[in-house]
Specification:
With 425 residues, the protein is an alpha+beta fold. It folds into 2 domains: 155 residues, Cathepsin D, subunit A, domain 1 (Beta Barrel); 181 residues, Cathepsin D, subunit A, domain 1 (Beta Barrel). It is built from 8 helices and 26 strands. Strands 13, 14, 15, 16, 17, 18, 19, 20, 21, 22, 23 and 26 form a 12-stranded mixed sheet that branches. A hairpin with a 2-residue loop joins strand 18 and strand 19. The longest helix has 50 residues. It is elongated and about 115 Å long. The termini are far apart. About 3% of the residues have low confidence.
Length: 425
């Protein structure tokens, strides 16, 4: 009897769910970066790594690097293992290159043995990215379970699910489940889309489909006419290390015509740098009362003016949207979006989910649009049907008239032939 109870107890213990892990983050206001402290090696040497959702590898600088940053002497660690494999971590702000290594790490109260990372020897020149190291939490993990931070946690029975989120309010990284404060609240998702055809810096990122943009939406009416919205048919990536929202430059002209010139008229200025374009609004009331909505999977995710604009020292309002010339039709969602919506990254379901923020459900309109059934398209289709019907009717009438004329002509010819025969006789 005691043995049976013991077996039952062990079985229940094994299926009991694990509590999610919460790791404090440091938020750098100046850069918009989330920094997580991770200790490496038997000496538990601590590094402040940037949480990055666009790369899959975790990396720290080696003694060979020339940047003025903290460097890791892996030879001092009794738990380390170095390999001869060279990995390159690609990023639009600067690539890094180094050897694949393994060592013990400690994150909060979590300890992992034989964790895989890149010990960086070379930085691309010029290098404008965060140089002290990164915790890679991208979607596509390419180098096995030991290099996959979430997979490693699950395999070591630290968490139940390969899920994480960044709680921007409490500045913590939540591992293994959804943020507990959102229990029973609205949760919306978008499935991952293919990224293999994108430039290198996007291939490991979390990416969803983005169909439209809408501007200054009336949240009371809870309706969006997708025929009047700005259709983009693009992909979006979610970048925890990016302080802006970026648009491809191919959308610059339409954005100005449909948003800036309509709502701000003479109150905006265009600012160009070497690689990007952005805008500054001089009218505070117009800036703070505006909004941009992103249409994803039947929901309009609304960013209000107080999230879109940053007040400058000149008492103007800088739009936190950057336009870049890119080969790929990619929108990158950084801090303005990810600090307003709590984003959940789910490896197991291959999806990104959203809590909080301001959303409108437009599932009916979105479905109709995808099936060519929006009001404007219905009107166009009805007009086309009318034109086709009228055309068919006119064609039939012309054919009937031709048939009647031809018949009358035949009858006339027959009558004339009969008269000729009668006269001849």
């Amino acid at each position: 009897m005691k043995i049976a109870l013991l077996i039952i107890f062990i079985a229940i213990s094994n299926i009991q769910s694990l509590e999610p892990k919460t790791i404090p983050l440091t938020y750098e206001e100046e850069t918009g970066y989330y920094i997580i402290p991770i200790s490496f090696g038997s000496n538990e040497e601590e590094f402040g790594l940037q949480v990055d959702t666009t790369t899959s590898e975790t990396w720290i600088p080696s003694l060979k690097t020339t940047l003025n940053v903290k460097k890791y002497n892996i030879s001092d660690s009794e738990t380390s293992q170095q390999t001869k494999k060279t990995f390159e971590v690609e990023d639009e702000d600067g690539d890094v290159r180094g050897k694949a290594c393994y060592d013990s790490i400690k994150v909060g109260d979590i300890s992992l043995e034989h964790f895989g990372f890149v010990l960086v020897d070379e930085f691309e020149h010029p290098f404008s990215d965060y140089g002290q190291g990164k915790l890679g939490l991208g979607f596509k993990q390419e180098h096995g379970d030991d290099f996959n931070f979430l997979r490693k946690l699950k395999l070591n029975n630290v968490i139940d699910k390969e899920v994480f989120s960044i709680d921007h309010q409490n500045k913590v990284l939540i591992l293994g489940d959804h943020p507990p404060q959102f229990k029973n609240q609205l949760y919306t998702t978008c499935p991952m889309v293919e990224t293999n055809d994108l430039d290198d810096e996007y291939r490991q990122a979390w990416a969803c489909e983005l169909t439209h943009l809408a501007f200054n939406v009336d949240k009371r009416s809870k309706k969006i006419d997708l025929d009047k919205a700005f259709e983009v048919n693009a992909r979006i990536t979610f970048d925890s290390a990016y302080p802006y929202i970026s648009f491809p430059k191919r959308n610059l002209k339409a954005f100005k015509e449909k948003f800036l010139e309509v709502y701000f008229k003479d109150s905006y200025k265009e600012v160009k740098s070497s690689d990007s374009t952005y805008f500054v609004i001089t009218d505070e009331s117009l800036a703070l009362s505006s909004s941009v909505s992103f249409i994803i999977e039947g929901y309009a995710y609304i960013l209000p003016g107080n999230r879109l604009f940053l007040k400058t020292e000149e008492n103007e309002y800088e739009l936190l949207i950057r336009f870049y010339k890119e080969n790929d039709n990619i929108f990158a969602f950084g801090a303005p979006f990810m600090d307003f919506f709590t984003v959940v990254f789910d490896y197991e379901e291959s999806e990104v989910g959203f809590y909080g923020g301001e959303r409108l459900e437009i599932t009916r309109e979105w479905y109709d649009y995808l099936n060519d059934m929006t009001p404007e398209k219905k009107k166009t289709r009805q007009r086309n049907y009318i034109y086709i019907g009228v055309g068919v009717f006119v064609f039939v009438v012309i054919v009937l008239i031709c048939c009647i004329v031809r018949r009358e002509k035949k009858v006339g010819n027959r009558f004339e032939n009969q008269n000729n025969e009668f006269e001849y006789a």
